[in-house]
Amino acid sequence: MMKKISAVLAVMLLAASAALAQEEKAKGEAVVMPDIELVDIPTAGILDYGGFLMKTRFYNDGGVQGGLNFGVMERLNLGATMTVDKLIGNDSPIRMRRPEIQVKFRFYDGGYYVPAVALGYDSQGYYYNPDVKKYREKGKGLYLVGSKEVGISNFVLHGGFNVPDFDNSYFFGFVGANYTLEDKLSFILEYDNVFHTDDPSRFNAGMRIYITPYFQLDMALREIGRSGEFEANVPRKPERIVQLRYNTSF
């Protein structure tokens, strides 16, 4: 079963690469679109009006997360994601989780000293707990994020604050950075879920490979150095993820 799915994914990857290469030739020289997110944290980047992003994220234990994001208006993006646990492999049962929504509005484009700033909402969490029907790692919830290129060209810092759960109104923070090398490879670091020891912080690292300006392959490691348990018999440990992203405009 796993071999069949891996073969299908490989064929999809090659087909997408070939199709996008043809698209680039038709359009002429293409420009890499801004990153709207890193591994887990959002950025102040947005899709332009008419922009479109489709992503597929593969995570631990055969889980798959699919997502769509649209530039529905100038400065406004809307999106949705949905996860399916144990879709890949022989484990069972397969469980489809409820869809989650994403909204982002960039209200300031930044200046020489001041970063671009966006306000958003993201309900997508990780490690779903079916007993209480909530994620053990909550989504960002309501967040404010700023992004700015600093120091050297293509090195961008991102940081912000978020309130994931309005029931307790905890205030969290996050910070990240990415450096893009010749529009071919981006190195990513982020420190997430800061400020509360009872809900541990996360250190994530990864890279984004621009197979074409429209098609990217992400590889990352979440929760580096983390150990312990969310609860009895539910381990908390580093997680490897792979993600395919396709973005373009209509």
How many domain units?
1
CATH top level? Mainly Beta
- Largest sheet properties: 12 strands, antiparallel, barrel
State the strand order across the main sheet. Answer: 1-2-3-5-6-9-10-11-12-13-14-17
Rg on CA atoms, Å: 18 Å
Helix content: 10-25%
Average pLDDT, to the nearest integer?
Answer: 86
Q: Quick one: how many beta strands?
A: 17
| Number of helical elements | 1
CATH architecture descriptor: Beta Barrel
Give the helices and strands as they follow along the chain.
HEEEEEEEEEEEEEEEEE
Q: What would you give as the CATH superfamily?
A: monomeric porin ompg
Provide the fold topology.
Layout: H1 2-27, E1 51-59, E2 63-73, E3 76-85, E4 95-96, E5 100-108, E6 116-122, E7 126-129, E8 134-137, E9 141-149, E10 155-163, E11 172-181, E12 185-194, E13 202-212, E14 215-222, E15 229-231, E16 234-235, E17 239-249
Antiparallel strand pairs: 1-2, 1-17, 2-3, 3-4, 3-5, 5-6, 6-9, 7-8, 9-10, 10-11, 11-12, 12-13, 13-14, 14-17, 15-16
Structure summarized in a few sentences:
The protein has 250 residues and is mainly beta. It has one helix spanning 2-27, and strands at residues 51-59, 63-73, 76-85, 95-96, 100-108, 116-122, 126-129, 134-137, 141-149, 155-163, 172-181, 185-194, 202-212, 215-222, 229-231, 234-235, 239-249.
